[in-house]
Design goal:
- The protein is mainly β and 192 residues long.
- Helix content is 2%, strand content 39%.
């Protein structure tokens, strides 16, 4: 385990203590809500916030979830009080370079949240952090929810809220609801 030199370190991996051992959120029972504390955690790899500008000095609290359906996923974090800034970052992958993996992020006091349209069958990560060390040890609540308003009207392939919208022809693949060629054949071309 990589440890914060200023904090305690042991060989045991504690759930929530970084990318290798995140708290796993089961999306089959959304909305998810839980109270958490970071007193057992010691990793502080994420020094920057996904929202930019703010330096995050508290220990990282890492969660992961794998989407079952395409749709909008919202993450809200309620901090211990309104005097200390907390941050939430929704990441496409987990690693120390948070800004290159950032899908959405925000920093605020007491309540902070983000929402993003996410693809089905993909694992995403949430990092909860704070500017002042010890803030998250006082406890906080995290909430994850799902909603979907997409329809097949604007998609020619893939899915919309669990409904199959269509399949692409051989040699094409579905990208963001549109069939795209693999470069070996022309899709939708007009000959001269």
């Amino acid at each position: 385990a990589e440890c914060d030199p200023a904090g305690p370190c042991n060989d045991e991996e504690v759930a929530g203590n970084g990318c290798a051992v995140p708290w796993v959120i089961d999306v089959s029972s959304l909305p998810y809500e839980a109270g958490k504390q970071s007193e057992q955690l010691h990793t502080n790899l994420f020094k920057d916030s996904c929202a930019g500008g703010a330096s995050m000095a508290d220990v990282d609290n890492v969660f992961s979830f794998t989407t079952a359906k395409m749709g909008t996923y919202s993450v809200w974090v309620y901090g211990p009080d309104s005097h200390r800034n907390i941050s939430v970052a929704l990441l496409s992958d987990c690693g120390p370079e948070i800004t290159t993996r950032c899908i959405a992020g925000d920093v605020a006091s007491y309540r902070v949240g983000v929402a993003a349209e996410l693809e089905a069958g993909t694992t995403y990560y949430v990092v909860v952090d704070a500017e002042i060390p010890g803030t998250l040890a006082d406890g906080y609540r995290i909430w994850l929810s799902y909603s979907c308003n997409a329809t097949c009207e604007d998609r020619e392939c893939g899915e919309a809220c669990g409904e199959l919208c269509g399949q692409c022809a051989e040699g094409e693949s579905c990208s963001k609801g549109r069939c795209v060629g693999d470069g070996t054949r022309c899709s939708g071309c007009v000959e001269d």
